[in-house]
Here is the input.
Amino acid sequence: MSLLVVGSVAFDAIETPFGKTDKIVGGAASYIALAASYFTKNIDLVSVIGDDFPQDFLSTLKSSGVSLEGLQVKKGEKSFFWKGKYHNDLNSRDTLDTQLNVLADFQPVVPPSAKNAEFLMLGNLVPAVQRSVIEQMASRPKLIVMDTMNFWMDVAMEELKKTIAMVDVLAINDSEARQLSGEYSLVKASQIILNMGPSILIIKKGEHGALLFNKEEVFYAPALPLEEVFDPTGAGDTFAGGFIGYLSKTRDISFENMKRAIIFGSAMASFTVERFGTERLLGLSAKDIEERVQEFIELVQFELV
Amino acid sequence: MSLLVVGSVAFDAIETPFGKTDKIVGGAASYIALAASYFTKNIDLVSVIGDDFPQDFLSTLKSSGVSLEGLQVKKGEKSFFWKGKYHNDLNSRDTLDTQLNVLADFQPVVPPSAKNAEFLMLGNLVPAVQRSVIEQMASRPKLIVMDTMNFWMDVAMEELKKTIAMVDVLAINDSEARQLSGEYSLVKASQIILNMGPSILIIKKGEHGALLFNKEEVFYAPALPLEEVFDPTGAGDTFAGGFIGYLSKTRDISFENMKRAIIFGSAMASFTVERFGTERLLGLSAKDIEERVQEFIELVQFELV
Here is the structure.
């Protein structure tokens, strides 16, 4: 398999200014795998769910080219559940409920078929759990991309830094980059973080786009100004899925190709936020994606005469 | 004269996390005129100062190609003074002192030589005062660009809308666009504001760049990620000055050329924030500006293979 995706497969209950949902399917790995499946059909998923999870969604993943051999189903247990409410600006949210359930003692097991994956995407999880996946690989992937969140910086910074030191690309948001580096300037923050191990840093800025840094270069991808952001849940994971999916498809990890991967990731994320949960991410056509990417090109294109 | 600039010429006292200044030269029109002077030497300035203003700075303006015929000097009176302190993130600030002084009853008088200016830049001022300048023009300028601020939306919304209805380009920041339109989505906000009169809306997003809208198209110019933002004062005015200066030089007001003008405006603003006040904006070379513009091109450039 060419791409291994690790992360949560879970339930979310979401409230935004535009409406609310009961339990719907969510979780970092769900968004990542679905987004990546538009670029490659060689995907392995490593995650854990309870026996309360809808078979429908698992069938959707399978028919999208995602192997579920590494998905543990815990009999008599419940899937991870998160409930949150977004504020009016959609840039901030309150967590109303978190039930770890099966995620509390998740021990990922990478199936043999996935131990030589060329691309490894570590969705947000306990840093030590992310690391145990890297350690199970039979050969070093061509590229390891890692997402994480401020929570681990608060409670497990040293563990987090150990995992960060082992990856090639770290993808975090601007406030996380500031917290991790202790620097407000994102340029300075990027250099500090790149000295922690990764050769590439992606700073996600939500509606303000994303920055791609290596030690010498920087690339700025805008976010598409949208008429309406309906539900931002999963936008960052979808972005990561589009990014790693495009790289898995093209098998080119140059900085130039990562720029293109960022644009594809941004395009995929712009779909996700148009509906609740994974709804908009299902059943996109190649033409839908192509047109959205074209909008990004037109958005930033200018020529100096 | 090809470009008429109207706005405050004033004193600022600024405190940032990096240091503080006593009274230094500031004011919207100072930044606008200086930035524009790198593109055109046919500039008229309409403003008012007291007799406390440093002759040095006026000489600098003159030698930069800015005619001061429309600059009123009030004997025995004091120039406008603003004192402010930026918070650690530099995105917000507190006003510590505002002394209107000569600006309290400012009646702009457009000199005969400027009444046929092709380009008119209205820096932030009382909306009725901005309007009185438009009304003094002998012929309708090819392009009128207007800046304003949230304060006028709070205290003089109807007056403000009358002035907005008379201009071609409105340049405001994202929170002002939301306040003026009553819409959180900047895409929706832009359409509401473009229905108020202007054919072009520029939404300035500080470190997140700027958006250029007409009724059919949108362009996103990033801001250069800077190692250090030293003092953001005047960044928006410098941006406006570079924008209108580039348009005055090229005399092309197409959407395509406005994209270029936005890039030049952003490049000029990226200099201003590197030092206190107007310091960095003095003595730039054509090569400095060219290199900075090149950095913007490299920042956003990607090619889909």
Observations:
- Chain A is about 35% helix and 25% strand.
- Chain A has one domain: 3-300.
- The mean pLDDT of chain A is 95.
